[in-house]
């Protein structure tokens, strides 16, 4: 198309061509021309949020659901700085995203005008690429490049800055066709070398999940791992990488992992990392697997060559799309000796993921067990950061990709926006938002977005212990009995939910939870269960009293 159009119209047309069907936004006067173009574009759903942090989190979650870049529009200055948190999440989680920022007019730049920020400097450490579009005729070029950059190699966020006067220019522009994702096949010689290493190994383990991982990766990788009995552990918050009922699933690494799994990783003579970066959380501060990993051989499979050898000495680097790699492994004819370790690791995980009764008034382990009995296996669990998430990481059994939306960078407030995005994207699936009291109030206003969108598949469990629990845990370990800054004064969360138009109830005892859950599931619309818990049980395996006694 080469007829004259405004920059706003060209931009919306190009997004539609690339496959965008949803945009998340808080509207701003700096991109009114885009909003006007969207008025006549029913193919793109516009989700209006209540804060730009929620916008960016929703775009990140939507991208994880689709594999396409999540699209966010915010205004300059405060809008962009609010959205910055979601760019950090997308960067560390390797999620494709494009953040569009409406900006000051071209003639006013560098005068520190109203809400002006140098976005090149601001986003440079966080985004794969930051650019400002000065010429409306080049919008198709910039959007196509942004789309390709976001999904290629290690996926991640891109920021495009849009001067408001550029968006109102009427010009002729040549549209770019849809950009295919470039996927690098695995080198058969490298995979053959890995198979030779497996033949010589006595205690191998795979650590999976991360850049480019999808449902199409999970099935062939699980097929191959099950065929040879290879234990498969998930990197931190990558527990949906393969279905957890796989007979070789070993559980998750990160915070509070199974000690038997930790020991298995320490004892491994061959580690095959696929998609995972082996970051600080997954490796317990680079101690579980050290950067030089003496007495261990490391095979690292990743779609981005710059990630290979960046932190870890890599014995066999394989630069490949993880789906292509998994498919090649599943089709490999070479016979590898079958390991018993996969079945043993899975048995260890089954024991670890079965909650035992404790004497607290509201036992979160039994809560998760009741949820497992009542909700579909493919429920999507969405959570932000906090000790409350430990019960879901340990006791929930994820059905496969995608069924876990949780930030690996430990960002609070992610769960509810992610759950809203997932509920819109997958109305046929049950969505469960697990949130702590401190975590929830970071973005609790997005309840308004959920209700406005009319979602009917969203259940929120708000775990309220009156504290920033994770920080309280560290505080008690380092400075026992000296509380400072970690106690919260909370609202009546059930009443708050009702004020937004959601159904809600409060639960304070284990015996009451199953009934409350049944009643919640019988309702329509957004539902919230306010769970009042005791701060004493600070994690599934640790109490405040135990922390103090250790000190």
Question: Brief overview, please?
Answer:
The chain is of the alpha/beta class.
Question: Could you walk me through the main structural features you see in this protein, from its secondary elements to its overall organization?
Answer:
By secondary structure, this protein is of the alpha/beta class. The chain folds into three domains: 4-171, Thiamin diphosphate (ThDP)-binding fold, Pyr/PP domains (Rossmann fold, 3-Layer(aba) Sandwich), CATH 3.40.50.970; 188-350, Rossmann fold; 354-550, Rossmann fold (3-Layer(aba) Sandwich). The chain is built from 21 helices and 22 strands. It has a six-stranded parallel sheet with strand order 3-2-4-5-7-6, sandwiched between helices. Strands 11-10-9-12-13-14 form a six-stranded parallel sheet, with helices on both faces. Strands 16-15-17-18-20-19 form a six-stranded parallel sheet, with helices on both faces. Strand 19 (503-507), helix 20 (510-521) and strand 20 form a beta-alpha-beta unit. The longest helix is centred in the N-terminal third of the chain and has 16 residues, at 78-93. The chain is globular, with a radius of gyration of 24 Å. 52% of the residues are buried.
